[in-house]
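Sequence and fold:
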Amino acid sequence: MLRKQYLFILVSLIMLVTFLSGCIGGQFGSPSATKGDTVIKGRVVMPENNCYTGACDNPAITEGEPLPNANVILVGSSGKNLYTTTDCKGEYSISGAEDSCYILYANIQDTEMWVKKGIYPVEQDKINDAGEANYYTTAQVIIYEVAKQLFGDAVTCDIIGDLIPTEALLDAVKEALVDCRDAQQDGDVRKLATLVAKSIFGSPSGGGGGGGTTIIVGPTPTINPSPTPTTLYKITGTVYMRNEEGQMVPYDNSKGPIGLRLVKKVDSSKIEDIFTQDNGTFEFSPVPAGEYVIEVISVPEGFDITVLPKSKAATKAKATSDTVIEVVIVNADSPGNNFLLEPVKPETYKIQGRVLDKETDKGVNGVVVSLYKKDGTTLLKSVSTGPNGGFSFTRKAGKYVIKVDTYDTSVYTGGVDPEQRLVEVVNSDVAGQVFYLLKNPVYSIQGQVVVKGTTTGINGAKVTLYNTNWDTLANDTSEGNGQYRFENLVAGTYYLKVNQYPEAYKAVEPEVRTVNIVSDNITGQKFELVPQDAKTYFVD
């Protein structure tokens, strides 16, 4: 009886231990996948850099440092994507995988740095440890993506893990990630990846694999190149700028490189982003025949860029806007896709006004109006008024002086009002700059040439009007009653003199008359002529 009790207790203990171990293993041990649930886990690693913070130590990492709080996208071969994030150790775990092959893309939020990895095979209903995604696996995926672009569906996801990058490609990818850049957009990375892709799958253009470079791949992917190789082309061009003499010369990147993007015309999907070289040139390659658009995505601050015209035969190109070139490749490279870089022209505004006759308030045509710098002496530009007296200047923001420089002074003797105008241009056109031309009041001088001692007028005597410098201003000849007249005279001092008279007379009195015009017409300016026979014609 006692033996049976011991046996019962022993069996019960064994069952209890078995039960507890099952609970512990199922709930508190390593994660396990349930029926119908496929899990992919792994870790994302970056070369040591200063691109982010917040990483925790992770002894499982062989080289580099974990990528914390990264967005992780698993792109399935069927097109279904899975999304998750890494923890501070760079680790991730996601369930719901249905495809046998995935490509992992991980990046820090709001950056363009991407770490990539091909994951194959993914076993269903199991936990699949994908291991590390690092710069090596990133180089593998870039080779795959380049080959996919060149050969299309002949390249599949399951061969990514078999691709072996060259040391040069690995160094270029690592350098880009250390510099916090997207390795996929690095021109050297793309060229080196293209060499590897061609060495594996054959050169689409029929040539060798990158100029004799031997690439070892193991195991060799069981991929057959397309029966009809695709011919690839180059799209090239140059960015120019003007030198001090105004001649166009290649841009030397002295203000920073120009960013350019090639997209497909049909759907605007991006093919490649590149930058100009130090001689201003750029190249998109390799590119199959098709329709593309070259877009300018970045220029140095303070500069504008425009398309330079071009004409092609087999390869056509046209500017579809000021900064976009449409390229159609038929059966040849497309060179000469050129741009012109120029300093931004400052925004300009109009300075407008009129020159008016003060009396009539009508515009005066043909008046020369000049624009000066704010010092009032440095001439910038001169224009002539139109039929309505209007004038206009186009200038950038600043302070300027406007003056009326040339007008008909014989008509407008009173000058200009105002003499000048100070104008400040801020951020809009300036109008209403009016100048008035003044006509001073005009007067007349009139008188008579008579026989001395009588009121008899003498016909044919020439009377001359002088200014105070004895410059001749006008002449008038007396008529039958001896009258003479001078008109349109402004206020001032004048001299009158009879210079010629009939032969029957021998002298004139007075010899000179001084006339002062103040504010009224002058009359009664009499000259007397002395006859040759004073006894007959003159009584003293």
